[in-house]
Amino acid sequence: MHNKVVYHAMKAFSAFGIPVLRFNFRGTGLSEGTHDHGHGEQDDVRAALDWLDKEFGKPILFAGFSFGSAVGLKVCCGDARVKGLIGLGLPVHAAGRDYKYGFLPRCSAPKLFVSGDHDPYGPRESLAAVWERAPEPKRLVWIGGADHFFQGAAESPGAKLDRMQAEIRSWLHDTFGLEEVGKSD
What we know:
CATH topology: Rossmann fold
Radius of gyration: 16 Å
Number of domains: 1
Order of helices and strands: HHEHEEEEHEH
């Protein structure tokens, strides 16, 4: 919840005046419960969606990072309240675990995947294959010289978080016609 990727994603949504809920999965930080390898964490996402729906009653845009993107996409695909999905650093293979996205071919909501081209958990060829199975509308963006956390790779030092954030903002504008708060042409 407090890492730089999640923070910069939150700032991108906030620039459009969109309410943002950041939360830790069970057993992370000060959250109760224990890690459940993606099973119970789906209930955490459902609880977050229910809370957002009850609190704001507006269409929901989901964004998740790494494990959070994998779990969140699975829950949010097909939920009528969720109008768009963002997977940041979507893992394909991490910590000895293969992530499966068999649900994506049925996911009709607009999708944005943003990954570093040096992300060891989402190698370019593997992630591109996942993205190919997803129906339109979809966008896949590779941040050059970035690792899993959108930090610079050895040959391209320096954080790339601003580029990740710019891609989110561009997608929100292009896909939903949203304008940044206080920004006029």
